[in-house]
Amino acid sequence: MKKYLAIDQGTTSSRSIIFNSNLEKQTDSQIEYALTYPSDGWVELNPDDILNSVVETLDNVVDGVDSIEACGITNQRETTIIWSKISGKPIYPGIVWQDRRTSSYCNELKAKGLEEKVRQKTGLLIDPYFSATKIKWILDNVDGAREQAEKGNLAFGTVDSYLIYKLSKEKNHLTDVTNASRTLLYNIKDMQWDDDLLEMFDIPKSILPDVLSCDDKFGTLCVNKKEIPIMGVIGDQQAALVGQDCFKRGDMKSTYGTGCFLMVNTEDRPINIEEGMLTTIAYKINNNVHYALEGSIYSCGNIIQWLRDKMKFFKHASESEHFLNRNGDSNKVIFIPAFNGLGAPFWDSKIRASFYGITQDSSIENMITAAFHSITFQTKEITTILENNDIKINKLFVDGGMVANKTFCQVLANTLQKDIYRPENVESTALGACKVAMIASGESIKASQANAEIFKSDSDLKSVYENEHSAWLSHLKELLEKKD
Ligand code: ADP
């Protein structure tokens, strides 16, 4: 049976997985790396750490495998790396998608009334989350950067581009449509870089990679003296959509990793919902472009990491499950998960995280339960907006590191009052990258989510969760109003 390689470069770790053509995992290797937080709202990574961690996982899985048909790459999106085309070295650390340093600049652009134009072209909002303002920040703040960029000596890439540049023997400077669609510079209707936006953000075009379909030829990966064609590139959330077999209009998944991203396939229609939802490219495969609606929640699994590493409430993320109350009771403790502001549907850069409602009687259990609720309540905000806009939600497929936690899945089902489907293989992201590479190689792919575990919503707890949710929402609205 043929073998395929998926590289999954996430926000907290890098993974390489070998699948066979039945989409069964053969071997895998995962290495965590650290992000840095140099200032309030800043989040950076060292591009060398990313590269080294990917290379190490590749070495671990490729060894002993005779021949690998093709490789698919999936990656954290929006994270911005700029390197010299001459030395190949990054000129600044990678600015991670969560970073909010450009929020004042974004506010200036919004005050000029440019948001609608940007939304029409890119499907996105003007927000520090996306790459454009991060690129501009590097060009404006790193000595000599703008001059070098004007001379055509610098390259910008999201993590996929950087990996392709560093790991392909051709040293290609490429990206795919899904990653391009998260830069704020790519016109998702014309399917090309937008000159008007480049001028608006003051970014020279020579810095940008060429954009290919997800299932195009991206170069040749050289690892352990083996040469593997890179036949698939797709951003992580879009990869999860493919991994979850969400190929039809209305198919929906929610990924609970570092952040949480709910995505609905809308096929050939780029649907625009004003209330804080993004319109984005789901994929371009076999020459067909599919669009998606996306609700992006910044803080999710990183809340659990914070409870573990900074609050020292437990030693392993999995232990959080023992503290989470199944019946929706947080003893009136509320958590606002805004370490770096809030994403969909609130989009606020200034607000910061807080606990509220703590009394002498409050326990670690209450605080941990409140933290989990802040994730399920944000999901509920998004599903409510979708339903208000006539997008039906019958069931929700979930994946990502957090859904290893069964109690969390049940709490999610109870909060949403929807059945939650957790697939056997929750590594949908890597699976999606593998599937794209298989399609590009002409291999037919089978459905991968046949044996999903179902978490049925408990209607007896409906009002408990509704009350907790509305207390959380009114407290949050108070904070947002006070801050303004
Ligand atoms: P990413 O792809 O963004 O790096 P993953 O999908 O690998 O993220 O998920 C990792 C996240 O999942 C971590 O932030 C971790 O805290 C969280 N996590 C892992 N296991 C559990 C668990 N059993 N309960 C709650 N959270 C968990």
Q: Give the class from helix and strand content and strand pairing.
A: alpha+beta
Strand content: 15-25%
Helix content: 25-40%
List low-confidence stretches: none
Gross geometry? globular
The count of β-strands is 23
Tell me the span between the first and last alpha carbons.
Answer: 60 Å
Counting structural domains, the number is: 2
CATH class of the largest domain: Alpha Beta
CATH architecture of the largest domain: 2-Layer Sandwich
Q: Bound small molecules, which ones?
A: adenosine-5'-diphosphate
CATH topology of the largest domain: Nucleotidyltransferase, domain 5
Write out the strand line-up for the largest beta sheet, numbering strands in chain order. Answer: 17-18-16-15-21-22-23
Kindly report the average pLDDT value: 94
What does this 3D model show about the protein?
- It is a single chain.
- The chain is built from 15 helices and 23 strands.
- The termini are far apart.
- The chain folds into 2 domains: 3-234, Nucleotidyltransferase, domain 5, CATH 3.30.420.40; 245-422 and 452-484, ATPase, nucleotide binding domain (Nucleotidyltransferase, domain 5).
- It is α+β, with helices and mostly antiparallel strands.
- Helix 9 crosses helix 14.
- The relative contact order is 0.13.
- The mean pLDDT is 94.
- The chain has a 7-stranded mixed beta sheet with strand order 17-18-16-15-21-22-23, sandwiched between helices. A 6-stranded mixed beta sheet has the order 3-2-1-5-14-13.
- The site of adenosine-5'-diphosphate has 20 residues, from helix 10 and helix 11.
- Residues 10-13, 257-258, 301-302, 304-305, 317-318, 320-321, 400-402, 404-405, 408 line the site of adenosine-5'-diphosphate (ADP).
